[in-house]
Amino acid sequence: METGYSWDTGLTRKLNEDSIFCGTFDISTHVDRISAGLFAVADGMGGHSAGEIASSLAIRTFCPEVTAGLLVQSPPSPLTIMSGAFSKANNAILTASREKSQEGMGTTLTCALVIGPDMYVAHVGDSRCCIINSRENLQVTKDHSFVQTLVEAGLITPDEALSHPRKNEITRVLGYYADTIPDLLHVKLYAGDNILLCSDGLCGVLSAGTIAETVLAAGSAEQACSDLAGQANRAGGPDNISAIIIKPSNLPSWQAVINIHTSAGTA
Question: How many domains does the chain divide into?
Answer without folding.
Answer: 1
